[in-house]
Specification:
Blueprint: H1 7-20, H2 38-43, H3 53-70, H4 74-86, H5 97-105, H6 107-118, H7 128-141, H8 146-169, H9 177-191, H10 202-211, H11 222-232, H12 237-246, H13 255-268, H14 270-273, H15 277-288, H16 298-311, H17 315-329, H18 337-354, H19 360-364, H20 384-398, H21 400-407
Length: 414
């Protein structure tokens, strides 16, 4: 714990709190399923779980990082991030603890930037940038601290995306491109002294992957950057998911390159996932791009999902994979008839035979860009209601006969 707060770190706290209008944590939103029936889910043997181990662990780390930043305990935060990064420590489902602490530390500012962007209110003199400048000063105060540098670099990237989003929402995505690029250039400058650490620090490697989005010529570096990251942390699904997303033609690759990378990752991480990495690399790419199915080996995908579940047969993983398949199958376009048949069979098996709990939060993850390095991971509890409705829609389809049967019976006495 710091002996005393410096004037600089007090300025950081004051600027961010004034900019965001927040002085303490807002209470988490409760899951209120609305139209779905929690009672029927229970009678189906798949009760709705508002609190899961992964949700609790992620939220605790996000809160910890945020609270340390609000208390200006940056030295302590840097130490915790370094420890988590050095030991490759992850949550129950494989989310890196260092990334969650970093996301929490910048969450007030990143959320405020996003809110201002959504309102079309960002301008060069916006008060948000006083908070960003205060965080920028931390780079000098804690020179040599890779964790603090990553937090500040990611904050600049958050600002860049906020500028881009504001232009995109107005139908003019090119409007703020110069500010987007300037934000990423500043992030790159902050990370430059730590470039040599990427081979030994998953956090720095992941932050450098996030930086690719704003770098000219990133196409030449994307495969090498992600292979460096995944080799250090093969147990983290999110990194492989982001790799596939960034290999889509709209980013830095092609469908052929995506499939090749998925096969290479399956071979490289076989000791950890069997051939499961094939599914992880394709995961977000399929959710984002319906044309990607033309390059997909659906039989290999099913085999990969089986390998994932063999190694991780927990309810978090069952819910995540069922949500993934259900969202794909809910679309009218995407998989062809034979692919749809295979995917539907697997989805139905997961829901009928493997699923014993309904994790609403997990069903929401397929919609919020959770996998991308640099994501603020900020919507854990607030997305649970949306996810619960997604889950209910899928279960109502797959278990329609069971629902008709139990809905005609009287509810059991309490």
């Amino acid at each position: 714990m710091l002996q005393a707060l410096s004037a600089l770190t007090r300025k950081t706290r004051t600027a961010v709190q004034q900019a965001t209008g927040r002085s303490r944590a807002a209470p988490p939103a409760a899951v209120q399923p609305g139209g779905l029936s929690s009672a029927l889910l229970g009678r189906l043997g798949r009760p709705l779980c508002d609190e899961t181990r992964e949700l609790s662990e992620c939220q605790a780390l996000l809160d910890w990082g945020r609270d340390l930043a609000r208390q200006d305990r940056w030295e302590r935060l840097g130490t915790l991030i370094a420890q988590a990064d050095g030991t490759r420590k992850t949550t129950f489902a494989g989310t890196p603890e260092a990334e969650l602490l970093a996301a929490g530390a910048r969450s007030d500012l990143s959320r405020a930037l996003d809110t201002a962007s959504s309102a079309g209110a960002l301008s060069r003199g916006h008060r948000m940038f006083a908070g960003l400048q205060a965080m920028d000063d931390l780079v000098s105060e804690f020179a040599g601290d890779a964790g603090i540098a990553a937090v500040v670099a990611l904050s600049h990237m958050d600002a860049g995306w906020a500028w881009y989003k504001q232009g995109w929402q107005r139908g003019r995505p090119e409007q703020h491109l110069d500010r987007f690029r300037a934000a990423f250039a500043r992030a790159e400058e902050i990370l430059a002294p730590f470039a040599d650490q990427a081979a030994g620090s998953p956090l720095i490697a992941s932050t450098r992957c996030a930086l690719l989005a704003g770098q000219p010529g990133a196409e030449a570096h994307v495969v090498g950057a992600y292979e460096t990251l995944i080799a250090q942390a093969p147990t983290v699904p999110g990194h492989m998911r982001a790799f596939g997303l960034h290999l889509l033609p709209c980013w830095f690759g092609s469908y052929a390159a995506l499939d090749l990378a998925a096969r290479r990752m399956a071979a490289a991480t076989g000791a950890t996932w069997g051939c499961g990495a094939y599914a992880w690399v394709w995961f977000d790419a399929l959710l984002q791009d319906r044309d990607a199915f033309a390059a997909l080996d659906a039989e290999f995908l099913i085999e990969a999902i089986d390998d994932i579940l063999t190694r991780h047969p927990d309810q978090h993983m069952v819910n995540l994979l069922a949500a993934f398949l259900s969202q794909i199958l809910a679309r009218e376009t995407g998989p062809d008839r034979s692919q749809r048949r295979l995917l539907e069979k697997m989805r139905n098996r997961l829901i009928r035979a493997e699923m014993t709990e309904t994790h609403g939060w997990v069903w929401s993850l397929t919609d919020i860009g959770y996998a991308t390095p640099g994501s603020s991971h900020g919507g854990a509890r607030t997305d649970a209601e949306t996810g619960a409705h997604h889950a209910w829609a899928a279960l109502s389809t797959v278990l329609s006969r069971d629902l008709r049967r139990i809905s005609t019976r009287p509810s059991p006495a309490p």
